[in-house]
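Slide 14.
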Amino acid sequence: MEGEAVPEQNVQKDKAIVKQATTPPAETKPQAGVSESEMKGMLSKVEVSLVLDTYDDIFSDFDPRPYNKRTLSEDFLVAARRFARDKDEGIELRLLIPKALHSTTSEDLIKQRLKEHFRRHYKASKKARIKYRQQAIMLVIAGVIIGMVDALLLSNLNLDTILSDAIGIIFTPASWFTIWTGFEHLVIPPEHLAVDEAFNKKFESAKITFTTY
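Slide 15: predicted structure.
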């Protein structure tokens, strides 16, 4: 109701308490049955651990659908993005959940949903980057065409001085501006396109595990 105080427990909070897991210490020894090469591969994994109160912390409070269709929480995505920013590919996303709430069925659905989300957004961000590059190339081509039209009009038509000057004033700056804008977009694309693509690519290929605490 309008004017009614919002309960404190409904206030949006940072749902994911995030901690970085660094490479295990050098003295860690291979477990029985694990080869030295396999252990090196395990130790080279970059881990991002998120501590959850419930499985719902991963998802939006406003989406009541089941886990395999539910929208991911912005808090969860922001936390994952922040701590994966400087990580290379091959990361492991480890989600810590209270032992009393552990459910293999729910975790399988959540893993499926996370993979689907990051896969779809990786494809979308890659498509957006390619489209932006194509638009930049089209700008360069358009600028060249404008310049050619300008040159043809001035050289092949018997125009008086005022009209030829007017054409030069309009077409020549337009040609150069369009060409250089296209080159600028090619050389300096928006940073967010590359950042989004890199983030979603990391998690699209990430190993997702659940651990109880």
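Speaker note: The helical segments are 36-43, 74-84, 104-156, 161-187, 191-204.
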